[in-house]
Every structure is written in structure tokens, then in C-alpha cells.
Amino acid sequence: MTRCGNGGISNGSEVAFVWRLLKSLSKRFGGEVRNIDIGVISFYNEQVNCIRKKLDKDTELCRWMQRSNVSLQVSTVDGFQGSEKDIIILSCVRSKWMGQNGKNDSIGFLKDSRRVNVALTRAKHSLWVVANCDTLSHDRLWNDLIQDAHVRNRIAEMTALNSMLGHPRPNTKKSKKKKKKKNDKHNF
Description:
Elements: E1 2-3, E2 9-10, H1 12-29, E3 36-42, H2 45-56, H3 59-67, E4 70-76, E5 85-91, H4 113-120, E6 123-131, H5 133-136, H6 140-151, E7 155-157, H7 158-164, E8 179-184
């Protein structure tokens, strides 16, 4: 997680994972998928900007979306209010929690239950939540969601997901334990 000079927050690991997930979908389904709406949402403007920049640079991915009539909207949670998409990928960004002895014990916008409700109810068929479960589990609402997903076997470690997507683990200076939650509307 990085705080920018303008105060915005982004998470490069999550940006890279969202990109790899979309690339994997394009390779796996190629021309088989048609007329699908995908939404990538985050609670933070800076994360939305970083995701847009990463996706805009990938001409192969853009060609697949155009060829297959795949629409993609990248926006903040607030920007998605009232919208639904077939697939939603939610990037939560937050990855630090120090607790009682330190600062940084807030999960910011992710603590707002109304925003969480909007974020989690935009998917018609499939919801992917890209998050650090260790960080979010300190919050009661997120802990309940994470425990429910865990009981239903809907949480996967980042390394397992990268392997499934056919991508090696990204090189990072810090090795953070990262988890990912996948769910569909009918099971959530």
C-alpha cells in the first residue's frame, strides 16, 4: 500500500493482480465470451487511476475486449452506485494494520458499511474481492464476510491464484501474505 503525495492510496500488488486476472480471462475464453460487462471498482480514486493506466497500456487486452464486445468500467465504489455488471472485481487496497501500539489501525472507507454494501452488491454473476484478509479481519463487518467466505471455501492465497492464472508470483521487496476472495452472487 502506498500513500501518494496528494494523499491518495494505491496498492500496486492489487493493480497487478487485477490486470493478470483480466489477462487470464481473455486468454482462457478468447472469442468464446461475448457481450459481457465487467466492472473493476475500488474505494480509492488513486487505485482507480493506477488500474486504468495499467489496463490502458495493454493493447492486446483492449483488442480482446473490443473483438468480444466486452465492456469494462473502472470506477470508485461511489461511481458504481446504481450500476450492475456481470463480473465485479473489487480492489480493497488496504494492507496494513498495526493496532493498539501503532497508528494505521484504520481501514478508511472500507469501514463504511454503506459503501461496502454498494461494492458487494454490484455483481450479477461473479464477484472477486482482492484484499488482504489479515488486515480486513480486524474490522467486525469484514471479519464476518471473510469467515463466511472461508467456511464456504471461497478464499484462496495469492500464490495459489497466481498459479491457477498461469502467472508466477510477482517479484516484490516485501513478501506480504495476501488473500483473495472469489464468490458468485448466488452463494454470497
